[in-house]
Structure formats: C-alpha cells, structure tokens
C-alpha cells in the first residue's frame, strides 16, 4: 500500500495599494482569523459551493504586502479598528504575528510632495518593489489590488497615482484589480500597455452597499414595468473615505459609478442626485439613504425608501479576498484581458457586463465553471508559468 503524499500549494502574493488603510488592515486580519479557525468566512462568495473544486489558492497560502504613503504600523491600525468596532475585540492580539509580517512587506508609495522622479521612474520603482516581494517570498505569483482612497478624475495628460501603480502591476507581470473608482488602468496613456500585457485584470469600484442594493432594485422596477420618476440618495460616512470624498472631484468620481448602475438597469437616467457627506464621528461606518419616486398602474404615484447601515471595511474585505483568489487562479489558468464575469463585484465593471446583480451572478458562476475546467491545479508541475511583460510606459 502506498502512502498518500500531501502537496502544499505554492504561496500567492496579495499586494495592496493603500496597504495600511482600513480595508487592507481588515483584509489581512480577516484572512488570518479565518485561516486560524477563529471566524467563519462570512461574505466570501469564493467559499460557497459554487466555487468548489475550482482550485482557488487557499487562504492559508496568501502572503500580504503593499504600498502606502502613511507609516502607522498594521498592528496599531488594527487596534484602532477594534476600538471602533470594525474588528472584534482581541483579534489584533490574536493575529498580531500575521499583521506584523504583512507590515514588514509594505513599501513607501508615491509620489509624495517634492518627489522629483519621472512617471516612468515611479512605475519602475513600484514594479521593482513588487518583483522583489515575489522573489524573496518564493511566490508562484502576486495579484495587485488597489484599495487606496478615491482620487479625483484626472484633468490632464499626467498619470494619477492610481495609474502609476496599475502600470507598475502590469510591468511586474501581475494581475490587477481596481477596487476603487480611481482611474487605474483606464487612463488613455496606458491603452497600449493594457492591450499587450497578456494578464487578467478587473475593476472598478467595489460594490459593497448602496450600489449593491441599487443593482437589485433597479432591475426589479424595470422587470415589473414600474416607471421610476426620480431616484435620490445620500451617504454619510467618516474615516479615510469620508475625508477623501469631501473633495467634490473625488465624490464626483465615486458617484459616476452609482449613477451608471441606475442608467444601465432602468434604460434611462432618472431625476435626482446622490450626495456624499463626510461625518468624521462615524468612522468606518456608513449610512446610505435612497428615496425612489415611482409610478404604477393608472399613474398612481408611490415611494420606496431604503436605509443601508454598514461597515465599509467589513463589507469590502471578503470581496478583496475573493478577487485576489479569482485573479490568481485566472492567471494560472492562462486567462487574459478584462474579466467581465467579475462585474458582480463592481459598480463600473471593465468589459461587457450586465447591470443587474442576478445576471452578474450568473456570469460569475460561468467563470467558476471555466476555472474548474482550466489549467493544472496549484502545486502541480507546470503551474504558474507565465511570461512577464517588458513593455515600458512613459
């Protein structure tokens, strides 16, 4: 009788842009907590039966690093989140070693005020950091995920920070996820690099609260032939996102995705606006109101009002883990280009994706089937071989 041999899956890197923010800290702490059996993977779609046997990298194989422009260590950041009720009390201590290990892999981001490096020098520097992380840690691959604060839409030809990081990800040969409304890969100057990179990518702007609800309610009105006369919304939030979105230009970038969901699902843009108000006292908690004026049979006018109260980091973190695992597996399986099947996760998906959540979920299950059928399993010889692009972007 031959003894069975256990094959340890290779480690996979998750390189977080904004690595010391609330979302990133919750991602690292949450992954460690679930791996240790301290908490269940609530909110992780990749842990549901739909993704059984798709050979996603296990949570225990994920290794974290990233870029940030702030220097507050992750263990301290986790303590602050626990004090605010975002993380469970005691969790920062229980996963302190994992938080400290991730913090040691965070490199200074940029550009900072006074930085005289050219865009290409910044891209090369960021890419070198990622490649060094992969090499030192002996990783099969790494996925770069942007979870930094929202930046205003660019007004000129210069690449904004999110696009510098995105270009660095591709130059380093890594799949890329834009979980923010920032420009990222969608800057025109990156079009040739994106077209030739041979890598999978996804985005943009994670769908965690108000827009998640809109992607369900919008199709409901359309399918029931009820006329939406106006749809208005208000968001109250604090923390880093609240401060960033106090900038009208950043708020406009955020709201564009929210409004696009309604236009796509209703077939027209209803009257009304969405407002975002910074309330620092709320911290990482958000309240979103929607007021929907609609018309029924014989012109009868009616109203639906909804209230969504949630913790952005706790809603976003499981999605970030999902996306990192999905992009890593897609990369291993040889998939390239925009993964439109991941529109389920985003307000403004890249590629052709339906707007209704139900239809997006159906496409996501189709991706699960593709991954189930494609490529060698993690840990088998030949897995993870992928060319690294060398095209430079200026």
From TrEMBL:
Gene3D superfamilies: Dihydrodipicolinate Reductase, domain 2 (3.30.360.10), NAD(P)-binding Rossmann-like Domain (3.40.50.720). Pfam families: Inos-1-P_synth, NAD_binding_5. It comes from the Bacteria. Coiled coil: none annotated. Residues 209-313 form the Myo-inositol-1-phosphate synthase GAPDH-like domain. Residues 371-394 are annotated as: Disordered. Belongs to the myo-inositol 1-phosphate synthase family. This is Inositol-3-phosphate synthase. It comes from Streptomyces akebiae.
